[in-house]
Amino acid sequence: MTWKLRWPVGIVAIAASAVVFLVPFAFILLTASKTGPDASDLSFSLPKQWVLIENIKEVLHTQDYVVLRAFINSITLTVGSVTVMVVLAAMVGYVLQRRRSRINTVVHFLVLAGLIVPPAVVPTIWVLQGLGIFKTMIGMILIEVTFGLSFCVLLFRAFVGTIPRELDEAAIVDGAGPLRLFFSVIVPLLRPVMITVIVVQAVAVFNDFTGPLYFLPGDAGVTVQLTLYNFQSQTLNQWNLLFADILLITIPPLVMYIFFNRQIVAGMTSGAVKG
Amino acid sequence: MATTVARGVETTGVVASAPRARRRKSPYPLWFYLPAGVLFVVLFAIPTFASFYFSLTRWTLFKTEFIGLDNFVQFFSEPMLVSAFGHAFIYGFLTSAAKVVLGLLLGLLLTSSIVGRGYLRAVIFFPVLVSTIGVGVTFKIMMKPDTGLINTTLSWFGVSGPGWLTDPSLALYSVAAVDIWKGVGIATLIYIAGLVAIPQEYFEAARVDGASGWRNFWNITVPLVQPATNTVILLSLIGGLRSFDLIWAMTNGGPGFTSDVIASVIYKQYQAGFYGLSTAGNVVLFVVVTAIVVPISYLLTRREVNR
């Protein structure tokens, strides 16, 4: 792109992006702020009366606070699975990058298989039932951990590759054992990629619909994505409430993005291009 | 530092077992694989292997009955199931190709010196992070034939928009378009990283040789950004072939079965209690994804090495 075009092209791009990417979000916000009758024609217009807070309150109230419970469930699931995932994947990614071992060929293969192979739904339910953890939060957390591992391992492996081995050797000479080497020397250096993995996986787990749909059915463990899905059939033509629910569910990823924009971008690309 | 080292020696007992440790203990112990490995085997590998058996059975909650290949015969003889097979292909390849082309173009645009670059990057990437169900429901409403935002806008220009999700010949493509809208941000991001990594010397040398912008693009940018292209192709193919949530949120596979894909058939059969048939669908999906992604991945990475 030549210098003299930076303004015209930039302005065209900004205008196009506003139409393509901002209008849908503005539409969500505007409809969520309207009263029921006002929202019924689905027009892209300013609300006659801004009732966003009331709508959100009403969404949270419906059906015995199901949305609120769903939020608690979703947050439990996200925090639990991301914590376990990060620790386990960091250990695997680290040894996978550092150790020269024949087992690593197998592990590499399994990591890629985990990335490519679609999970077999009903047999997984069968295993969960056998273990007595079907329809439980623990079972769901372990499922999310398992399905997310491969991606995290690849990111960790790529990042560990940028940490000089001399550091390990120095620590070993100083007498550090394997655990100490990993947790006191390597883990602190993994901070950037850890933040990335946490943010990316937190968003992925929070937004996961298929997993809870299959492995955590029932009202007790309902997650926000499922309530949104159910909401659209139950609140026919109460568009303001439906969009208030969508808005509510969009807030956590938005907050993540505002705070961790740089880490998401930096980490995702380092893993994607090198990995 | 000195104190931590001293404590390290004590707690790990390296001194006591030093001779043995030196002989066979690596500082990178294999048991680090264990916790992840157990989960992977129990919740992923075992179900995957079990699916090959269960796909050959009539399976209800209480019993399994071995029926050979009947499920697969049924899968490939019922038109609605066969069409789901084709739809998954169309969906996967269409979204993948679009993300490569748009991602590369947007990546080029966003690595150039245009104004508003930071804003553009942010706004294109944000949909990646938004709930698929939320996006699906929003677009479903915006795509309503009469009152939806898209057709209302088109009517200002005198165009009467089609029934994006109600027209059987269009529904699958409308959902694919939303998939591209939502996913192009990640492709762009990967391309930006790949483009930034291309050494500027190549372009300088080309300028000395008098190469045009177009030739620069085809002879320098495209080949050198190949790793990013491979990542985008593979990620979107893997995601696209097994895509479920967006389709389910927008059309439930309809109208009729015109936007059903393999993953939505798996869910429908599961819901209906045909666990064997559902699992056969899973095996089909497994075969489709591996048979497409593995050779492509092999071809692409080989090209990358030979460069």
Automatic annotation (TrEMBL), chain A:
Pfam families (UniProt xref): BPD_transp_1
GO CC list: plasma membrane
Q: What is the membrane topology here?
A: Multi-pass membrane protein
Compartments it resides in: Cell membrane
Gene Ontology biological process terms, A to Z:
transmembrane transport
Q: Which residues cross the membrane?
A: 7-30, 70-94, 106-126, 138-160, 181-206, 239-260
Q: Which UniProt keywords apply?
A: Cell membrane, Membrane, Transmembrane, Transmembrane helix, Transport
Q: Which domain of life is it from?
A: Bacteria
Q: Give the chief site where it resides.
A: membrane
Ranges for domain ABC transmembrane type-1: 71-260
> Would you identify the family this protein belongs to, as annotated?
Belongs to the binding-protein-dependent transport system permease family.
Query: This chain belongs to which protein, by name?
Result: Raffinose/stachyose/melibiose transport system permease protein
Source organism of this protein record: Microlunatus kandeliicorticis
UniProtKB/TrEMBL annotation, chain B:
User: Which residues fall in a coiled-coil region?
Assistant: none
The record's annotation in InterPro entries points to: ABC_transporter_permease, MetI-like, MetI-like_sf
The regions listed as transmembrane in this protein's record are: 30-54, 88-110, 122-143, 170-196, 217-238, 283-301
> What range(s) does the ABC transmembrane type-1 domain occupy?
85-296
Q: Which SUPFAM superfamilies match?
A: MetI-like
Alphabetical GO biological process terms: transmembrane transport
Q: Which Pfam families match?
A: BPD_transp_1
Among the entry's GO cellular component annotations, what is one? Answer: plasma membrane
According to Swiss-Prot or TrEMBL, what is its membrane topology? Multi-pass membrane protein
Compartments annotated for it: namely:
Cell membrane
Q: Tell me the superkingdom of the source.
A: Bacteria
Q: Would the keyword Transcription be found if you checked this record's keyword annotation? A: no
Q: Which UniProt keywords apply?
A: Cell membrane, Membrane, Transmembrane, Transmembrane helix, Transport
| Family assignment from sequence similarity | Belongs to the binding-protein-dependent transport system permease family.
The protein, known as: Raffinose/stachyose/melibiose transport system permease protein
Q: Give the species this sequence originates from.
A: Microlunatus kandeliicorticis
**Which taxonomic lineage does the organism of this UniProt entry have?**
Bacteria, Bacillati, Actinomycetota, Actinomycetes, Propionibacteriales
